Amino acid sequence: MTPRLAVEGIGLAFGGVAALRGVGMAVAPGEIRGIIGPNGAGKTTLLNVICGIIPPGEGRVLLDGQDITGLSPSRIAARGVRRTFQTTALFRGLTVLENVATGLHTETRAGLLDGVLGSRRLREEEREAAERARQALDFVGMAACADRPAHALSFGQQRLVEIARALVAEPRVVLMDEPAVGLSLNRLADIDRLLRRIRDERGVTLLLIEHVIRLVMEVSDSITVLGSGAVIAEGPPAAVREDPAVVAAYLGTAVHA
Amino acid sequence: MTVRPLWVGLAAALALAVLPLVANPYLLFVGNQLSIFVILAVGLNLLVGYCGQLAFAHAALFGIGAYGTALLKVHLGVPFAVSLPCGALLATAVGLAISLPALRLSGLYLSLATLAFAQFTLWVFLHWEPVTFGAGGFRVPAPSWPIPGVTAGIGTFYLALALAVLLTLAAASLVRSRLGRAMIAVRDGEVAAQALGVDLLRTKAMAFGLSAFYAGVAGGLQALMLGYVAPESFDLFHMALMKAMIVVGGLGSIAGSVVGAGAVLFLLEGLRAFKGAQEIAFGALLMGAVILAPRGLAGLLDRLPGWQERYLRAAPAERAPAAAVPREAPP
Amino acid sequence: MLSYLLLSGLTTGSIYALVALGIVLVYKATGTINFAHGDQLMIAGFLAFTLHVLLGLPYLVALAGAVAGSFALGAVAAQVGFRAVLRTSLVNVVLATLGLAFVLKGFARLTWGGISDYLSFPPLVRPEPILIGDMVLLPQQLVVTAGALAVMGLFALFFRLTTIGKAMQATADNPRAARLVGIRVERIHLLAFAVGAAIAGAGATLMAPLTLLYPDIGFMLFIKGFAAAVLGGLTSLPGALVGGIAIGVVEALAAGYIHSSFLEVSAFVAIMATLVLRPRGLMGGPPPRRA
């Protein structure tokens, strides 16, 4: 079976310093893949390469077997790869609903003329966009906040809205950069449930960078461990936990969760 | 009782429309200038307030619209019905042309490039004498309107008013659409906007082109209204004046652009005789607004009951009564 | 001809470099550009004019007065105006400083504009040119160039040797770490605006005998200084020197070999061309992170 998302031999250097070295992995459709590793291992850089923000020096990124390496971030987003950010990145000047509706930019077609004339197509698209955005907010439990300005939300609420924004266009893959950062322990169970629902109810393949080891071990179908820009282990959570290379490089030094 | 921006704006336009019946020539001039300033401010706010691009070329593009319109008439005898749109399109083309390299520049580098472009344009107005007539400027023949009984001044007044209303409505509609949200997204976070499929280049180029088009239309109207074009109308002082309009009115607000244009015009006319005092007043206004009232007059407008400029709403009003929609989450 | 043009370009260029130095200093400390920098310089020039020409005080006293007055003006502007907006956004800082630029310009027009449109400053040294071989040197140019270089040298020493200078450097390099080691970052920002303005004060007094003084000179010098700073990479002090001299020489050559009216515009064309080819200037690296 073709993997939903595959990276092959990704290498990248910043000014002579290797950030990623021959990284390869294949993620099956409907899988939750955890990516862990110590700080500076290249996790966020890998996400940036996959979604086109940083072009890789070498290697390929394949989405359902199609090469998407070197496409612009907006093209890759249009193909159905979406992400959330480590620090929340909601647009402060928009309402919660408008933020989520921005996720439908590639799904809508109204152009400049529609925009300035307020055409029928525009109005129909807008009505549909508002409805889909509201449903996505409902999915993460934030529908009640739809009309509030984004900057008025708490940190945790902003993270949920960001997830809704990444989901609204029914993407094939969502890359999540530390969704649990800054959340209290009792919210962790909610995130755990939400991630499973994203996979089960919406059929989304998830790539998850996470420092909260307990969460990532519980929710992931399999885990890739990065160390110094290279893959040092891969497999089901239980196996990765026991892997001596991982224990040496990572778990032994950096588990505080 | 709700106050809708659309009603207030149309009521103001209607009030302006009866001005020629009662006003003296000076007030007519001020009313005409108001329409032109509104077009300028709305256009600049699209680029700076909505799309967040720190550009300083607006006065120069205003000038390109004025020179383009007037010179086509003076040198080639092209009627205003053709030269005005041509002037506006010329400004748009130049705006798009400078946007192409400018799109690679961010923040301060963009501001320097556009400042240099503005000074370059002013230099061309001043020194390309065979075409632009140099520092002294040149006279533009008065337009003739095909409607009997309509004088040149009255005709230009209504043309400017009609264009101001149409272009303001167009901008107000655009900023509520997906393209408006894309501009705001680019302003508030370029990387996140891209990751959602918003094309940075296209969005910024659109904002540059639109804003240049508005400046060009305003420039053509200015040439018609004054019957005279000279380089000094498009210098750095006028650039600061336009910045003051949108900052005082409110960055990222169409209604604010309109109100800000009015406020600046009022002050400009009040201090007409004193260049130094004008500079102090506008400089202080700009600085004071940024520091003390960053949302500008639009911040006050937003407190009016029912005043809503932009929101895409969760439940369209015709399907659910407003009271049934939870607008605020309980604290 | 060429040597004369190069020399006069070098002189103007060293003035631009001095303007750029103040801009770079503020940028390094705060991550923003002070659009009122040129107008602060212009005000300092008028201040020196008042002290030296109107009140008859010695030139060096006028220089000290202009530097001190400029420092105070910069500190007040930063404290009253810019402090509040530094935390918000780049657009806000630029617009606030642009507002101040026009306030200063209008103030100068109302205060000194009545005397004459263009004020001239008496020469410092005898105006007769010196001939060395076939090179023509104006003593005034030599004094200005030497003075500008001396101010830059002093400033470099200040950065290297004094505690305040080191604290400013540390804040520029890493604001968060600077805060952690107990440097009061807000005070450094204030100081950067004030010291930047003081440098502008010295520059104004140095160049006043060579050029005429008028209210619009400030923003013109600001654009040239800004361009020089960008050419030099915005964060580098030697870069500002090289950028300033490059612009001065380009202007002198364009005026000498094409037409005198090209003096003004050549700098703008050069800036636009440079930014199209090298979006971060000739020596530009990545921009520093904002605090």
UniProtKB/TrEMBL annotation, chain A:
InterPro entries: AAA+_ATPase, ABC_AA/LPS_Transport, ABC_transporter-like_ATP-bd, ABC_transporter-like_CS, BCA_ABC_TP_C, P-loop_NTPase. One of its GO terms (cellular component) is plasma membrane. Keywords: ATP-binding, Nucleotide-binding, Transport. The keyword ATP-binding applies. Residues 5-253 form the ABC transporter domain. One of its GO terms (molecular function) is ATP binding. This is ABC transporter ATP-binding protein.
Automatic annotation (TrEMBL), chain B:
It is found in: Cell membrane. The keyword Plastid does not apply. InterPro entries: ABC_transp_permease, LivM-like. The keyword Transferase does not apply. Pfam families: BPD_transp_2. It is a multi-pass membrane protein. Signal peptide: none annotated. GO terms for molecular function: branched-chain amino acid transmembrane transporter activity. One of its GO terms (cellular component) is plasma membrane. The chain crosses the membrane at residues 33-52, 82-100, 107-126, 146-175, 207-229, 241-268, 280-301. Keywords: Cell membrane, Membrane, Transmembrane, Transmembrane helix. This is Branched-chain amino acid ABC transporter permease.
UniProtKB/TrEMBL annotation, chain C:
InterPro entries: ABC_transp_permease, BCAA_transport_permease. Keywords: Amino-acid transport, Cell membrane, Membrane, Transmembrane, Transmembrane helix, Transport. One of its GO terms (molecular function) is transmembrane transporter activity. The chain crosses the membrane at residues 6-29, 41-61, 67-86, 93-115, 135-159, 188-214, 226-250, 257-277. One of its GO terms (cellular component) is plasma membrane. It comes from the Bacteria. PANTHER family: ABC TRANSPORTER PERMEASE PROTEIN, BRANCHED-CHAIN AMINO ACID TRANSPORT SYSTEM PERMEASE PROTEIN LIVH. It is found in: Cell membrane. This is Branched-chain amino acid ABC transporter permease. The keyword Membrane applies. Pfam families: BPD_transp_2. Its main location: membrane. GO terms for biological process: amino acid transport. It is a multi-pass membrane protein. Belongs to the binding-protein-dependent transport system permease family. LivHM subfamily.
